[in-house]
Structure formats: structure tokens, C-alpha cells
Specification:
alpha+beta
């Protein structure tokens, strides 16, 4: 039997067995995803600020290329932190309400899906 804090309740079991998340489960996983997005996006402004400072900083001409490249790298990291989290495959699965399960230890594998590019599937291994 699942405990009170578990997203896997006995009431949701029939719906889960049919391959769908319950509304409560989808909302719970949505909150988890939102928290992860906020955490990653909270790191973006410091990276962007460091990148901007490196791009506008004055210093020795001999180090200008290294300073510019490092500034661009920091800006790129900030962009990934802003854009990346919503694109996580688990978020797409939760938005669709899709649920797949098997017995055994959990392992994640990325597989190619016909006609839709790469996607993620979650498999159990014995």
C-alpha cells in the first residue's frame, strides 16, 4: 500500500493500469516539474550577469578573445538554463498524462520514435 506522500495511490491504480495518470498525479508531477524549472531558471540570471560583465569588461588585449569566449559561454549556459527544463522528456509525458510501467528496477533509455525524432521511454529491468 502506498503512503500518503506517494504519487501512487490505490485509488489511481485502475487508471494507471490503463496507461494514464490521474488528475491528482498529473498535478503533483506538474508541481515537481515547476519547482525544477524554477530552480534551474533561478541560476540563469547570475550566469547571464557574469557573461555580460565579461563581454563589456576592459582588460589586457591579449586576453580579449578568452574573455569574449568565456562571456559567450556564460550567456549560452544561461540560455540553456532558461530553455532546457521545460523540454525535459518527463515533462512531456506528464503533460500528455501518459503512463507506462513494468516490474523491476527502473532505468531510463532514450530511443528513436518513428516520425517524431528522439524521445524517451522509461523501462524496468530485472
Amino acid at each position: 500500500m502506498a503512503d500518503q506522500n506517494s504519487p501512487f495511490s490505490q485509488e489511481a491504480l485502475p487508471l494507471n493500469q490503463s496507461g494514464r495518470l490521474s488528475d491528482e498525479q498529473a498535478q503533483r508531477w506538474g508541481r515537481i516539474a515547476k519547482g525544477r524549472r524554477r530552480g534551474a531558471q533561478g541560476l540563469a540570471p547570475p550566469f547571464a550577469a557574469i557573461g555580460a560583465l565579461l563581454l563589456i569588461a576592459n582588460g589586457p588585449t591579449a586576453k580579449a578573445v578568452a574573455r569574449t569566449n568565456t562571456g559567450l559561454a556564460f550567456l549560452a549556459i544561461a540560455a540553456v538554463l532558461l530553455v532546457g527544463p521545460p523540454l525535459e522528456p518527463v515533462n512531456a509525458d506528464v503533460r500528455e498524462g501518459r503512463l507506462e510501467s513494468v516490474e523491476g528496477a527502473i532505468a531510463k533509455r532514450t530511443t528513436g520514435l518513428k516520425g517524431s525524432g528522439a524521445g524517451s521511454r522509461y523501462y524496468g529491468r530485472r
